[in-house]
Each structure stands twice: as C-alpha cells, then as structure tokens.
Amino acid sequence: QVQVVESGGGLVQPGGSLRLSCVASGSFSSISRMDWYRQAPGKQREWVAGIASGAGAVYVDSVKGRFTVSRDDAKNMVFLQMNSLKLEDTAVYYCNVLVRAGFFEDHHWGQGTQVTVSS
Question: Residues 18, 63: contact at Cβ < 8 Å?
C-alpha cells in the first residue's frame, strides 16, 4: 500500500509565495515520476508540473517562470515552490506519484492541499 500526503497550502496575497511538499511512503522500490495537479472550483483537474527520475522538470505554460518543482529521492518527496502567485492559482493542489514495485508501476494520489490567493 502506498500513501501520498501533501502539505504547505494556505492563504496568501497576490504576489506572495508558498512551498508545497509531498511525501510518499509504503511498499514500493522506487518512484519513477512525481507530478503536481490542481483543481479550481468548477473546473477540471489540470496538470501543473512534473519531474521524472533522471530528467528535468516540466511545467504548464501558465506557471513557467513562477513555479519550481524539485524532488528529494532520499526522502521520497517532491516540492512545488510557487512564487508571484496570482488569483487564478487558487485551487486544491494534488500530488501524483508513479511508483515502481517489481515489474509494475502504479499511480497514487494524495488528498490535496488548498491554496487560496486573495487580497
């Protein structure tokens, strides 16, 4: 069984910063990929950023230059540094991890953390 837990959300003013964290634990041998998604009220969940093992980070255009994703493989963690936050960044942010166990890979979601950008 795999558990994924996000943290770090909160209320911030436009232009402010937040750092989200995500940790994966449980039965797996490695993490192939870690991604951040978000879902705003009344909208579909959208992919925000991701980082694969041994590869660089990739971002949706709307956050390029403002968000930075990084990972700590020793701790099975991924982070999302969010700077210059805008009102439209308000959403529940979810972490998705692709873990490997033997010959199998499987995706697991966290419960989400709320990010609210408001003046």
Answer: no
